[in-house]
Write a structure and sequence with these properties.
This protein is of the alpha/beta class. The chain is about 40% helix and about 20% strand. β5 and β6 form a beta hairpin. The two termini are about 25 Å apart.
Length: about 475
């Protein structure tokens, strides 16, 4: 439970862990505000007061908020703070023996030999390599494809090895960090590699490999196909045994049509279509997926993130379509941009947020809105920012493969109420301008939507890989 985790964190000797507990309490307080859970508000505020004392922060605003809820608890919580009383001494922590480190290092397999021949890359190791310890992902870089394989807990006796070939540009093998060996196959054409881990030997097919016609090779081909089928249902970047949950939020719906675009097409319709395609794409890759709405119905903003929290989602993706603010701008305004929640109030962010923030938050007074924004978890802002960067990059790369004139409007921050209260990395994607004649028409094109959702899925997987070593 997050409350228990936060309470435990602020008793740590490590300042960075105490900060994590502090941020957890901030998230819990925001959740409590949205859920109107007074009991949780009190517990979160008490934790924030205690954590502030440990970190040397001013707890006044937390005390004032607590005073409004339970005046009788303010003195009690202040006197109960003993920064050092609950924190265990460093001597009580178990220490790893040097011999344990040495023995664990000795058990790590070593890469002994590499061969690239007969359309395969063969990697020979000193001991058995588990298929689950290998992670694979693909990057596209200006007409080049990088097929990347990370081998966990492997050592190599050389600094870097390069292999050049006719069907591929280059294979690079290096110790990426103390825990991982990275193999990169760089090609000029896209292909579907197959990977097999057979004891001490790992083989990866290379592009342009012709299928052998013998009976033995037929069997091998069947085995590879079987293996590919087994592994295709799990995300390329997934941790061992981890199934990631994504909540997709098609913006607007029902009485809230969103923006009205070119030829009177509605934002609520196109974002629902994209969301359903994304749901199928992510499920195909092994994610667990939920939609905040699967039909044309109105869902209040606060319920959307509340659903993501209840599902214990790893990601919250809200999908919207942008609109020009006046007739003169309709032919000029186009492009894709990804937002993450922040108190920042730039003119552009304000304008876009005004279009997407539904009327169902009109009951929130100015003080309450300000409180929400002031309690945004800084750790979640950073995580959401990183997710937004990966999504924006991969969406553009995917669309530019077949469409020209795709505009990058960048990653931005703003006060989007649909993202408030999310306990996970959360972003809002403006998939294009529905009011632009060309872009508005593309948004309803099935082929365009297919590339769009592939880019979003690639962005999520890219984030998982880079932030879950």
């Amino acid at each position: 439970m997050k409350l228990d985790r936060a309470a435990k964190a602020i008793t740590s000797d490590s300042k960075s862990i105490v900060w994590k507990g502090y941020h957890d309490y901030q998230s819990l307080y925001m959740k409590a505000l949205l859920d109107q859970n007074e009991s949780l508000q009190v517990k979160a505020l008490q934790g924030l007061i205690e954590a502030s004392a440990i970190l040397g922060l001013d707890p006044t605003r937390y005390k004032n908020s607590l005073k409004l809820l339970r005046p009788d608890l303010v003195k009690k919580s202040a006197s109960a703070v003993r920064p050092d009383s609950k924190r265990p001494s460093s001597s009580s922590k178990p220490s790893m023996q040097k011999s344990d480190k040495t023995s664990s290092k000795a058990k790590r397999p070593r890469l002994l030999e590499t061969k690239a021949q007969n359309g395969r890359l063969a990697l020979h190791f000193s001991s058995r390599v588990d298929r689950k310890s290998i992670r694979h992902f693909v990057l596209e870089r200006k007409g080049r494809w990088l097929y990347v394989y990370d081998f966990k807990n492997i050592r190599i006796p050389f600094s870097i090895k390069r292999i050049r070939g006719e069907s591929f540009k280059e294979i690079r093998i290096a110790q990426f960090d103390p825990r991982r060996v990275r193999v990169v196959i760089e090609t000029k054409t896209k292909y579907k590699p197959l990977l097999r881990a057979d004891g001490k030997v790992v083989t990866i097919t290379l592009p342009g490999r012709k299928r052998d016609r013998g009976a033995g090779s037929k069997k091998s081909s069947k085995e590879e196909a079987s293996h590919a089928a087994k592994t295709s249902s799990s995300p390329l970047f997934a941790k061992e045994g981890k199934v990631y949950t994504v909540v997709i939020d098609p913006g607007h719906g029902g009485k809230d049509a969103g923006a009205v675009g070119y030829k009177k097409r509605l934002e609520k319709s196109v974002v629902l279509s994209v969301a359903k395609r994304l749901e199928k794409e992510l499920e195909k890759r092994g994610f667990r997926v939920y939609l905040t709405r699967s039909s044309d119905k109105f869902v209040p903003l606060k319920r959307r993130t509340r659903m993501a929290n209840k599902k214990e989602a790893d990601f919250f993706i809200s999908i919207h379509a942008n609109a020009a603010h006046d007739r003169k701008s309709r032919l000029k305004s186009k492009g894709i941009e990804t937002y993450f929640l922040s108190p920042a109030k730039s003119g552009r962010a304000k304008r876009v947020a005004a279009l997407e923030n539904s009327a169902d938050i009109s009951d929130l007074n100015r003080y309450t809105k300000s409180t929400y924004l002031n309690f945004i978890n800084r750790e979640k802002i950073i995580e959401s920012n990183k997710l937004a960067i990966d999504l924006q990059k991969q969406i553009l790369a995917s669309l530019k493969r077949k469409y020209s004139g795709v505009v990058d409007n960048g990653v931005r921050e703003g006060p989007f109420w649909v993202l408030v209260g999310a306990q996970m990395p959360a972003v809002l994607i403006e998939i294009g301008y529905i009011t632009h004649p060309t872009e508005g028409a593309r948004l309803f094109n099935p082929n365009y939507q297919k590339l769009l959702v592939e880019g979003i899925a690639n962005g999520i997987e890219s984030y998982i890989y880079h932030n879950n070593p």
